[in-house]
Write a structure and sequence with these properties.
- The protein is an alpha+beta fold and 522 residues long.
- Among the domains are: 96-259, Uridine Diphospho-n-acetylenolpyruvylglucosamine Reductase, domain 3, CATH 3.30.465.10; 260-373, Alpha-Beta Plaits (2-Layer Sandwich), CATH 3.30.70.2190.
- 34% of the residues lie in helices and 16% in strands.
- The protein contains 18 helices and 18 strands.
- It has helices at residues 8-15, 49-62, 113-121, 139-145, 152-155, 185-200, 202-210, 223-227, 236-240, 274-284, 296-305, 327-337, 353-364, 366-371, 394-407, 434-450, 469-473, 475-488, and strands at residues 23-24, 42-44, 66-69, 84-87, 96-99, 104-108, 125-126, 162-168, 174-176, 249-256, 258-259, 264-271, 290-294, 316-323, 344-350, 387-388, 412-417, 422-427.
- The strands form 4 sheets. It has a 7-stranded antiparallel beta sheet, with helices on both faces.
- The longest helix is centred in the C-terminal third of the chain and has 17 residues, at 434-450.
- It is globular and about 70 Å long.
Length: 522
Protein backbone atom coordinates (compact mmCIF):
# COMPACT_ATOMS: atom_id res chain seq x y z
CA UNK A 1 0.00 0.00 0.00
CA UNK A 2 3.01 2.33 -0.22
CA UNK A 3 3.29 2.61 3.57
CA UNK A 4 6.64 3.41 5.10
CA UNK A 5 7.66 2.77 8.68
CA UNK A 6 9.68 5.32 10.68
CA UNK A 7 13.37 4.52 10.54
CA UNK A 8 15.99 4.02 13.22
CA UNK A 9 15.53 4.64 16.89
CA UNK A 10 12.19 6.41 16.45
CA UNK A 11 10.83 3.38 14.63
CA UNK A 12 11.84 1.02 17.43
CA UNK A 13 10.37 3.27 20.09
CA UNK A 14 7.01 3.83 18.39
CA UNK A 15 6.61 0.17 17.40
CA UNK A 16 6.58 -0.77 21.05
CA UNK A 17 3.04 0.58 21.42
CA UNK A 18 1.79 1.56 17.92
CA UNK A 19 0.37 -1.23 15.69
CA UNK A 20 1.89 -1.27 12.16
CA UNK A 21 -1.48 -0.46 10.57
CA UNK A 22 -1.55 2.92 12.33
CA UNK A 23 1.52 4.25 10.47
CA UNK A 24 1.00 6.19 7.22
CA UNK A 25 3.36 7.03 4.36
CA UNK A 26 5.31 10.20 5.27
CA UNK A 27 5.63 11.07 1.59
CA UNK A 28 1.90 11.78 1.42
CA UNK A 29 2.11 14.42 4.14
CA UNK A 30 5.07 16.56 3.14
CA UNK A 31 2.85 19.57 2.33
CA UNK A 32 -0.22 21.29 3.61
CA UNK A 33 -2.01 23.99 1.56
CA UNK A 34 0.97 26.32 1.81
CA UNK A 35 4.23 26.66 -0.11
CA UNK A 36 6.63 24.76 2.16
CA UNK A 37 7.56 21.09 2.30
CA UNK A 38 8.94 18.87 5.08
CA UNK A 39 9.15 15.08 5.33
CA UNK A 40 7.88 13.69 8.67
CA UNK A 41 9.91 11.12 10.57
CA UNK A 42 6.72 9.27 11.40
CA UNK A 43 3.03 9.73 10.56
CA UNK A 44 0.68 8.09 13.04
CA UNK A 45 -3.11 7.91 13.17
CA UNK A 46 -3.67 7.64 16.92
CA UNK A 47 -6.59 5.66 18.29
CA UNK A 48 -7.25 7.53 21.52
CA UNK A 49 -5.97 10.18 23.92
CA UNK A 50 -3.84 7.78 25.95
CA UNK A 51 -1.98 6.81 22.80
CA UNK A 52 -1.45 10.48 21.92
CA UNK A 53 -0.03 11.03 25.40
CA UNK A 54 2.43 8.18 24.88
CA UNK A 55 3.42 9.52 21.45
CA UNK A 56 4.06 12.96 22.92
CA UNK A 57 6.17 11.63 25.77
CA UNK A 58 8.17 9.42 23.41
CA UNK A 59 8.71 12.23 20.92
CA UNK A 60 9.87 14.56 23.69
CA UNK A 61 12.36 11.96 24.91
CA UNK A 62 13.68 11.53 21.36
CA UNK A 63 13.79 15.28 20.72
CA UNK A 64 11.27 15.04 17.89
CA UNK A 65 8.85 17.89 17.24
CA UNK A 66 5.16 16.98 17.07
CA UNK A 67 2.40 18.43 14.92
CA UNK A 68 -1.25 17.42 14.75
CA UNK A 69 -2.81 17.48 11.29
CA UNK A 70 -6.48 17.34 10.37
CA UNK A 71 -7.63 18.46 6.91
CA UNK A 72 -4.21 19.83 5.88
CA UNK A 73 -5.79 23.06 4.60
CA UNK A 74 -3.47 25.45 6.45
CA UNK A 75 -1.90 27.99 4.08
CA UNK A 76 0.94 29.07 6.35
CA UNK A 77 2.91 25.84 6.68
CA UNK A 78 1.64 24.93 10.16
CA UNK A 79 0.49 21.38 9.33
CA UNK A 80 3.87 19.96 8.26
CA UNK A 81 6.88 18.72 10.24
CA UNK A 82 10.16 16.86 10.04
CA UNK A 83 9.27 15.11 13.27
CA UNK A 84 6.17 13.21 14.44
CA UNK A 85 2.86 13.90 12.73
CA UNK A 86 -0.40 12.95 14.44
CA UNK A 87 -3.26 12.47 11.99
CA UNK A 88 -6.68 13.46 13.32
CA UNK A 89 -8.64 12.96 10.11
CA UNK A 90 -10.41 9.62 10.42
CA UNK A 91 -13.20 8.02 12.43
CA UNK A 92 -11.21 8.48 15.60
CA UNK A 93 -12.05 11.77 17.32
CA UNK A 94 -15.09 12.21 15.03
CA UNK A 95 -17.91 11.84 17.55
CA UNK A 96 -20.61 14.51 17.82
CA UNK A 97 -22.80 14.85 20.91
CA UNK A 98 -25.82 17.13 20.56
CA UNK A 99 -27.09 19.28 23.43
CA UNK A 100 -30.12 20.84 21.76
CA UNK A 101 -31.39 22.45 24.97
CA UNK A 102 -28.29 24.64 25.18
CA UNK A 103 -27.70 24.92 21.43
CA UNK A 104 -24.34 23.20 21.75
CA UNK A 105 -22.34 20.39 20.18
CA UNK A 106 -19.46 18.50 21.71
CA UNK A 107 -17.26 17.41 18.80
CA UNK A 108 -14.04 15.54 18.27
CA UNK A 109 -11.18 17.35 16.56
CA UNK A 110 -11.53 15.27 13.39
CA UNK A 111 -15.13 16.36 12.67
CA UNK A 112 -15.37 18.12 9.31
CA UNK A 113 -16.76 21.65 9.38
CA UNK A 114 -19.63 20.71 7.06
CA UNK A 115 -20.54 17.75 9.29
CA UNK A 116 -20.65 20.05 12.28
CA UNK A 117 -22.92 22.49 10.42
CA UNK A 118 -25.30 19.71 9.43
CA UNK A 119 -25.53 18.62 13.07
CA UNK A 120 -26.44 22.16 14.11
CA UNK A 121 -29.00 22.43 11.29
CA UNK A 122 -30.98 19.52 12.74
CA UNK A 123 -32.33 21.89 15.38
CA UNK A 124 -32.25 25.18 13.48
CA UNK A 125 -28.82 26.40 14.60
CA UNK A 126 -25.50 27.01 12.84
CA UNK A 127 -21.89 27.93 13.55
CA UNK A 128 -21.48 31.46 12.12
CA UNK A 129 -17.75 30.93 11.66
CA UNK A 130 -17.89 29.50 8.13
CA UNK A 131 -14.53 29.13 6.34
CA UNK A 132 -14.61 28.45 2.61
CA UNK A 133 -12.67 25.25 3.29
CA UNK A 134 -15.73 23.79 5.07
CA UNK A 135 -16.00 20.65 2.92
CA UNK A 136 -12.56 19.42 3.96
CA UNK A 137 -11.31 21.44 6.95
CA UNK A 138 -11.79 19.89 10.37
CA UNK A 139 -12.61 21.28 13.77
CA UNK A 140 -9.13 20.84 15.24
CA UNK A 141 -7.54 22.76 12.40
CA UNK A 142 -10.18 25.49 12.48
CA UNK A 143 -9.62 25.96 16.20
CA UNK A 144 -5.85 26.04 15.77
CA UNK A 145 -6.02 28.68 13.04
CA UNK A 146 -8.82 30.80 14.57
CA UNK A 147 -10.85 30.29 11.43
CA UNK A 148 -13.65 32.65 10.48
CA UNK A 149 -14.84 33.36 6.91
CA UNK A 150 -16.96 35.97 5.13
CA UNK A 151 -19.55 36.30 7.90
CA UNK A 152 -16.98 37.26 10.53
CA UNK A 153 -18.03 40.86 9.91
CA UNK A 154 -21.09 40.31 12.07
CA UNK A 155 -20.37 37.04 13.83
CA UNK A 156 -16.64 36.96 14.54
CA UNK A 157 -14.22 34.03 14.42
CA UNK A 158 -14.54 30.56 15.93
CA UNK A 159 -13.02 31.65 19.26
CA UNK A 160 -16.32 33.40 20.00
CA UNK A 161 -18.14 30.04 20.04
CA UNK A 162 -15.78 27.64 21.85
CA UNK A 163 -17.16 27.11 25.34
CA UNK A 164 -15.03 24.22 26.59
CA UNK A 165 -11.95 22.53 25.20
CA UNK A 166 -10.02 19.33 25.80
CA UNK A 167 -6.35 19.04 24.87
CA UNK A 168 -3.14 17.19 25.67
CA UNK A 169 0.02 19.00 26.75
CA UNK A 170 3.54 18.32 25.52
CA UNK A 171 4.10 16.30 28.72
CA UNK A 172 1.10 14.07 27.91
CA UNK A 173 -1.29 15.56 30.50
CA UNK A 174 -4.95 15.60 29.43
CA UNK A 175 -6.66 18.92 30.28
CA UNK A 176 -10.43 19.37 30.11
CA UNK A 177 -11.75 22.83 30.98
CA UNK A 178 -15.02 21.26 32.17
CA UNK A 179 -12.97 20.01 35.13
CA UNK A 180 -10.94 23.02 36.24
CA UNK A 181 -9.88 21.31 39.46
CA UNK A 182 -7.92 18.78 37.38
CA UNK A 183 -5.80 21.42 35.60
CA UNK A 184 -2.25 21.16 37.01
CA UNK A 185 -1.74 23.70 39.77
CA UNK A 186 1.55 24.85 38.28
CA UNK A 187 -0.19 25.88 35.03
CA UNK A 188 -2.91 27.80 36.89
CA UNK A 189 -0.37 29.71 39.01
CA UNK A 190 1.82 30.53 36.00
CA UNK A 191 -1.17 31.76 34.00
CA UNK A 192 -2.28 33.96 36.89
CA UNK A 193 1.18 35.54 37.12
CA UNK A 194 1.27 36.20 33.38
CA UNK A 195 -2.23 37.71 33.51
CA UNK A 196 -1.11 40.06 36.28
CA UNK A 197 1.99 41.07 34.33
CA UNK A 198 -0.07 41.87 31.24
CA UNK A 199 -2.68 43.85 33.18
CA UNK A 200 0.02 45.91 34.91
CA UNK A 201 1.60 47.07 31.63
CA UNK A 202 -0.64 49.91 30.43
CA UNK A 203 0.88 50.01 26.94
CA UNK A 204 0.54 46.28 26.36
CA UNK A 205 -2.97 46.21 27.77
CA UNK A 206 -4.07 49.11 25.56
CA UNK A 207 -2.69 47.49 22.40
CA UNK A 208 -4.35 44.18 23.19
CA UNK A 209 -7.63 45.91 23.97
CA UNK A 210 -7.49 47.73 20.63
CA UNK A 211 -7.62 44.36 18.89
CA UNK A 212 -10.62 43.02 20.83
CA UNK A 213 -13.19 43.39 18.07
CA UNK A 214 -10.85 43.12 15.09
CA UNK A 215 -10.34 40.22 12.72
CA UNK A 216 -6.91 38.69 13.24
CA UNK A 217 -5.35 35.24 13.66
CA UNK A 218 -1.73 36.06 14.53
CA UNK A 219 -0.35 34.79 17.82
CA UNK A 220 -2.08 34.02 21.09
CA UNK A 221 -5.19 35.84 22.33
CA UNK A 222 -3.50 37.23 25.44
CA UNK A 223 -6.49 39.44 26.15
CA UNK A 224 -8.28 36.29 27.33
CA UNK A 225 -5.89 36.13 30.30
CA UNK A 226 -6.68 39.71 31.28
CA UNK A 227 -10.41 39.03 30.98
CA UNK A 228 -10.13 35.93 33.19
CA UNK A 229 -7.32 36.94 35.54
CA UNK A 230 -9.24 35.61 38.56
CA UNK A 231 -9.95 32.26 36.89
CA UNK A 232 -7.36 31.62 34.15
CA UNK A 233 -8.75 28.17 33.34
CA UNK A 234 -11.66 30.01 31.69
CA UNK A 235 -9.14 31.65 29.36
CA UNK A 236 -7.93 28.31 27.97
CA UNK A 237 -10.50 27.91 25.16
CA UNK A 238 -9.54 31.31 23.73
CA UNK A 239 -5.83 30.77 24.31
CA UNK A 240 -5.90 27.46 22.45
CA UNK A 241 -7.89 28.96 19.58
CA UNK A 242 -5.34 30.29 17.09
CA UNK A 243 -2.38 28.61 18.79
CA UNK A 244 -1.53 26.46 15.70
CA UNK A 245 -0.83 23.43 17.85
CA UNK A 246 1.95 25.07 19.89
CA UNK A 247 0.29 24.82 23.32
CA UNK A 248 -1.33 21.39 23.11
CA UNK A 249 -3.05 18.84 20.90
CA UNK A 250 -6.77 19.64 20.74
CA UNK A 251 -8.89 16.49 20.84
CA UNK A 252 -12.39 17.81 21.58
CA UNK A 253 -14.37 21.03 21.96
CA UNK A 254 -17.80 22.14 23.08
CA UNK A 255 -19.24 24.67 20.63
CA UNK A 256 -22.21 26.96 21.10
CA UNK A 257 -24.16 27.67 17.93
CA UNK A 258 -26.52 30.46 17.02
CA UNK A 259 -30.11 30.19 15.85
CA UNK A 260 -30.39 30.87 12.13
CA UNK A 261 -32.04 34.12 11.12
CA UNK A 262 -35.22 33.82 9.10
CA UNK A 263 -34.67 35.40 5.71
CA UNK A 264 -31.67 36.57 3.73
CA UNK A 265 -30.97 38.97 0.89
CA UNK A 266 -27.87 39.84 -1.09
CA UNK A 267 -26.97 42.93 -3.09
CA UNK A 268 -24.55 42.80 -6.04
CA UNK A 269 -23.04 46.16 -6.94
CA UNK A 270 -20.65 47.07 -9.76
CA UNK A 271 -18.50 50.17 -9.40
CA UNK A 272 -16.41 52.25 -11.76
CA UNK A 273 -13.35 52.11 -9.52
CA UNK A 274 -12.02 50.13 -6.56
CA UNK A 275 -11.98 53.25 -4.38
CA UNK A 276 -15.74 53.59 -4.92
CA UNK A 277 -16.27 49.97 -3.83
CA UNK A 278 -14.12 50.58 -0.73
CA UNK A 279 -16.14 53.67 0.17
CA UNK A 280 -19.40 51.72 -0.25
CA UNK A 281 -18.08 48.85 1.89
CA UNK A 282 -17.48 51.31 4.72
CA UNK A 283 -21.03 52.68 4.40
CA UNK A 284 -22.84 49.35 4.01
CA UNK A 285 -20.99 47.21 6.55
CA UNK A 286 -22.77 48.50 9.67
CA UNK A 287 -25.89 46.34 9.47
CA UNK A 288 -24.67 43.70 6.98
CA UNK A 289 -23.45 40.24 7.89
CA UNK A 290 -21.01 39.99 4.95
CA UNK A 291 -19.39 42.42 2.52
CA UNK A 292 -17.25 40.80 -0.18
CA UNK A 293 -15.18 42.59 -2.82
CA UNK A 294 -13.51 41.60 -6.09
CA UNK A 295 -11.16 44.25 -7.47
CA UNK A 296 -11.43 45.61 -10.99
CA UNK A 297 -7.93 44.38 -11.83
CA UNK A 298 -8.94 40.86 -10.82
CA UNK A 299 -11.93 40.88 -13.15
CA UNK A 300 -9.79 42.35 -15.96
CA UNK A 301 -7.22 39.61 -15.39
CA UNK A 302 -9.83 36.88 -15.63
CA UNK A 303 -11.47 38.46 -18.65
CA UNK A 304 -8.18 38.81 -20.52
CA UNK A 305 -6.80 35.35 -19.86
CA UNK A 306 -9.93 33.28 -19.19
CA UNK A 307 -12.92 35.09 -20.73
CA UNK A 308 -15.17 32.06 -20.34
CA UNK A 309 -14.75 32.32 -16.57
CA UNK A 310 -15.83 35.94 -16.22
CA UNK A 311 -18.83 38.03 -17.22
CA UNK A 312 -18.79 41.01 -19.52
CA UNK A 313 -19.19 43.71 -16.88
CA UNK A 314 -16.06 45.56 -15.82
CA UNK A 315 -15.26 47.58 -12.73
CA UNK A 316 -15.05 46.22 -9.19
CA UNK A 317 -17.72 44.02 -7.61
CA UNK A 318 -19.23 44.24 -4.13
CA UNK A 319 -21.48 41.57 -2.59
CA UNK A 320 -23.39 42.62 0.52
CA UNK A 321 -25.53 40.14 2.47
CA UNK A 322 -28.26 40.89 5.02
CA UNK A 323 -30.16 38.51 7.27
CA UNK A 324 -33.40 38.60 9.22
CA UNK A 325 -37.09 38.74 8.40
CA UNK A 326 -36.64 42.24 6.94
CA UNK A 327 -33.48 41.39 4.97
CA UNK A 328 -34.98 42.24 1.57
CA UNK A 329 -36.21 45.62 2.74
CA UNK A 330 -32.85 46.43 4.35
CA UNK A 331 -31.03 45.41 1.18
CA UNK A 332 -33.17 47.80 -0.86
CA UNK A 333 -32.70 50.52 1.74
CA UNK A 334 -28.93 50.03 1.58
CA UNK A 335 -28.92 50.46 -2.18
CA UNK A 336 -30.97 53.63 -1.81
CA UNK A 337 -28.61 54.91 0.87
CA UNK A 338 -25.65 55.10 -1.50
CA UNK A 339 -25.26 58.74 -2.49
CA UNK A 340 -25.27 60.01 -6.03
CA UNK A 341 -21.74 60.01 -7.37
CA UNK A 342 -20.94 56.79 -5.50
CA UNK A 343 -19.72 55.22 -8.74
CA UNK A 344 -22.34 52.46 -8.88
CA UNK A 345 -22.76 51.18 -12.44
CA UNK A 346 -25.16 48.29 -11.91
CA UNK A 347 -27.07 46.86 -8.97
CA UNK A 348 -29.00 43.66 -8.40
CA UNK A 349 -30.82 42.29 -5.34
CA UNK A 350 -31.15 38.54 -4.71
CA UNK A 351 -33.87 37.53 -2.27
CA UNK A 352 -34.60 33.84 -2.85
CA UNK A 353 -32.39 31.14 -1.33
CA UNK A 354 -31.67 29.85 -4.83
CA UNK A 355 -30.49 33.27 -6.00
CA UNK A 356 -28.39 33.84 -2.89
CA UNK A 357 -26.81 30.39 -3.14
CA UNK A 358 -25.87 31.20 -6.75
CA UNK A 359 -24.21 34.43 -5.62
CA UNK A 360 -22.06 32.60 -3.08
CA UNK A 361 -21.19 29.85 -5.55
CA UNK A 362 -19.82 32.52 -7.85
CA UNK A 363 -17.82 34.08 -5.03
CA UNK A 364 -16.40 30.77 -3.84
CA UNK A 365 -15.50 29.82 -7.43
CA UNK A 366 -13.12 32.77 -7.63
CA UNK A 367 -10.06 31.00 -6.18
CA UNK A 368 -10.47 27.96 -8.49
CA UNK A 369 -10.74 30.41 -11.40
CA UNK A 370 -7.53 32.12 -10.31
CA UNK A 371 -5.74 28.78 -10.00
CA UNK A 372 -6.81 27.84 -13.52
CA UNK A 373 -4.63 30.67 -14.82
CA UNK A 374 -1.55 28.79 -13.56
CA UNK A 375 0.93 28.44 -16.39
CA UNK A 376 -0.73 31.22 -18.35
CA UNK A 377 0.62 34.20 -16.44
CA UNK A 378 2.52 32.55 -13.59
CA UNK A 379 1.80 30.66 -10.38
CA UNK A 380 -0.56 32.13 -7.70
CA UNK A 381 1.43 30.97 -4.67
CA UNK A 382 -0.32 31.30 -1.33
CA UNK A 383 2.04 33.85 0.21
CA UNK A 384 0.33 37.13 1.20
CA UNK A 385 -3.26 36.01 0.75
CA UNK A 386 -4.63 36.75 4.18
CA UNK A 387 -3.80 40.28 5.31
CA UNK A 388 -6.15 42.53 7.25
CA UNK A 389 -6.44 46.21 8.17
CA UNK A 390 -9.11 48.56 9.48
CA UNK A 391 -11.76 48.79 6.77
CA UNK A 392 -11.31 52.57 6.58
CA UNK A 393 -7.79 51.96 5.27
CA UNK A 394 -8.79 49.63 2.42
CA UNK A 395 -7.88 52.18 -0.30
CA UNK A 396 -4.36 52.56 1.13
CA UNK A 397 -3.93 48.79 1.27
CA UNK A 398 -5.14 48.31 -2.29
CA UNK A 399 -3.03 51.13 -3.71
CA UNK A 400 0.07 50.05 -1.79
CA UNK A 401 -0.28 46.41 -2.79
CA UNK A 402 -0.77 47.33 -6.45
CA UNK A 403 2.41 49.46 -6.34
CA UNK A 404 4.36 46.54 -4.91
CA UNK A 405 3.05 44.09 -7.50
CA UNK A 406 3.68 46.55 -10.31
CA UNK A 407 7.22 47.12 -9.05
CA UNK A 408 7.88 43.41 -9.45
CA UNK A 409 5.90 43.25 -12.72
CA UNK A 410 3.47 40.73 -11.25
CA UNK A 411 -0.18 40.42 -12.26
CA UNK A 412 -2.31 39.85 -9.17
CA UNK A 413 -5.83 38.94 -8.10
CA UNK A 414 -7.22 40.89 -5.14
CA UNK A 415 -10.52 39.99 -3.47
CA UNK A 416 -11.99 39.05 -0.12
CA UNK A 417 -13.86 40.16 2.96
CA UNK A 418 -13.87 43.92 2.47
CA UNK A 419 -16.33 44.57 5.29
CA UNK A 420 -13.77 43.19 7.75
CA UNK A 421 -10.77 44.78 6.01
CA UNK A 422 -9.50 41.29 5.17
CA UNK A 423 -8.26 40.88 1.59
CA UNK A 424 -6.77 37.93 -0.25
CA UNK A 425 -3.81 38.96 -2.40
CA UNK A 426 -2.80 36.46 -5.09
CA UNK A 427 0.15 37.67 -7.19
CA UNK A 428 1.32 35.38 -10.00
CA UNK A 429 5.01 34.48 -9.69
CA UNK A 430 7.43 32.79 -12.02
CA UNK A 431 7.69 29.12 -10.91
CA UNK A 432 9.94 28.56 -7.88
CA UNK A 433 11.11 32.20 -7.85
CA UNK A 434 11.98 32.27 -4.16
CA UNK A 435 13.76 35.64 -4.37
CA UNK A 436 10.72 37.53 -5.69
CA UNK A 437 8.35 35.66 -3.38
CA UNK A 438 10.51 36.69 -0.41
CA UNK A 439 10.67 40.33 -1.53
CA UNK A 440 6.90 40.55 -2.05
CA UNK A 441 6.18 38.95 1.32
CA UNK A 442 8.48 41.34 3.14
CA UNK A 443 7.12 44.41 1.34
CA UNK A 444 3.45 43.48 1.75
CA UNK A 445 3.83 42.66 5.43
CA UNK A 446 5.71 45.91 5.99
CA UNK A 447 2.86 47.79 4.28
CA UNK A 448 0.23 46.02 6.38
CA UNK A 449 2.00 46.64 9.68
CA UNK A 450 2.56 50.30 8.73
CA UNK A 451 -1.24 50.44 8.44
CA UNK A 452 -1.49 48.84 11.92
CA UNK A 453 -2.96 45.71 10.39
CA UNK A 454 -2.42 41.97 10.73
CA UNK A 455 -0.27 39.56 8.73
CA UNK A 456 -3.03 36.94 8.96
CA UNK A 457 -6.69 37.76 9.49
CA UNK A 458 -8.22 34.28 9.32
CA UNK A 459 -5.87 31.56 8.05
CA UNK A 460 -3.61 31.43 11.07
CA UNK A 461 0.12 31.41 11.69
CA UNK A 462 2.76 29.07 10.26
CA UNK A 463 6.27 28.99 8.84
CA UNK A 464 5.28 31.55 6.24
CA UNK A 465 4.28 34.24 8.72
CA UNK A 466 6.30 33.47 11.87
CA UNK A 467 9.22 35.77 10.91
CA UNK A 468 6.82 38.72 10.83
CA UNK A 469 5.00 38.20 14.14
CA UNK A 470 7.15 40.70 16.03
CA UNK A 471 6.78 43.23 13.20
CA UNK A 472 3.05 43.18 13.87
CA UNK A 473 2.90 42.95 17.66
CA UNK A 474 6.17 44.39 18.97
CA UNK A 475 8.86 42.69 21.05
CA UNK A 476 7.11 43.12 24.41
CA UNK A 477 3.88 41.38 23.38
CA UNK A 478 5.75 38.64 21.53
CA UNK A 479 7.85 38.14 24.68
CA UNK A 480 4.62 37.60 26.63
CA UNK A 481 3.48 35.12 23.99
CA UNK A 482 6.77 33.27 24.44
CA UNK A 483 6.13 33.20 28.18
CA UNK A 484 2.76 31.57 27.53
CA UNK A 485 4.37 28.99 25.26
CA UNK A 486 6.88 28.21 28.02
CA UNK A 487 4.10 27.47 30.51
CA UNK A 488 2.72 24.64 28.39
CA UNK A 489 5.70 23.52 26.32
CA UNK A 490 9.03 24.59 27.86
CA UNK A 491 11.03 22.22 25.65
CA UNK A 492 9.43 23.55 22.44
CA UNK A 493 8.26 20.14 21.23
CA UNK A 494 4.86 21.22 19.89
CA UNK A 495 5.07 22.58 16.34
CA UNK A 496 8.25 24.65 16.76
CA UNK A 497 8.97 27.34 14.21
CA UNK A 498 5.37 28.12 13.29
CA UNK A 499 4.93 31.01 15.73
CA UNK A 500 8.38 32.08 16.90
CA UNK A 501 11.65 32.05 14.97
CA UNK A 502 15.09 33.56 15.69
CA UNK A 503 15.32 36.98 14.07
CA UNK A 504 12.39 38.51 12.24
CA UNK A 505 11.05 40.37 9.21
CA UNK A 506 12.72 38.06 6.68
CA UNK A 507 10.98 35.45 4.56
CA UNK A 508 12.06 31.86 5.27
CA UNK A 509 13.46 29.80 2.41
CA UNK A 510 14.01 26.59 4.40
CA UNK A 511 11.47 24.02 3.27
CA UNK A 512 10.83 25.85 -0.02
CA UNK A 513 10.16 23.07 -2.56
CA UNK A 514 10.85 23.17 -6.28
CA UNK A 515 7.12 23.11 -7.08
CA UNK A 516 5.19 24.66 -4.17
CA UNK A 517 1.56 23.80 -3.54
CA UNK A 518 -1.09 25.98 -5.16
CA UNK A 519 -3.76 25.13 -2.63
CA UNK A 520 -5.25 27.31 0.02
CA UNK A 521 -8.61 28.72 0.99
CA UNK A 522 -9.88 32.18 0.22
Amino acid sequence: MGERRPDGRAAREFRRFIPPARFADPGRYERDAGIFSLTPTAVIRATDEDQISSILRTSARLGLPVVARAGGSNTGGAAITDGTMLLLDGEEFSDIEIDEARGRLRCGAAVRHDQLQRAFERFGFHLPSDPSSGPFSRLGGNINTRASGPHALRHGAINRYIREIRFITAQGAIIDTRRPADVPRGIVVALSKLAGKLAADASVKARLEARRDGKWASGYELLALIDHADDPVRALPRLMTGSVGTLGIVTEAEIEGRRRDEGRAAVLLRFEHDRDACAAALVLRDDAQAVEMVSSTTLELLREHAPALCGEDDGSLLIVEYSGCDAAARAQEAVNRLPSGSGVRTRRIATSERQIAAVWRERKALLPMVRRLTGTIGVPYSVVNDVGIDVSLLPQLLEGAERIFAGHRLPAAVYGHAGSGNLHLRPFFAPADARTVAAVAEEIYALVTDLHGTITAEHGMGRLRAPFLELEWGSDIVSAMRDLKGIFDPDDILNPGVLFVPGSHRFRTDGWPTSPSLSGSG
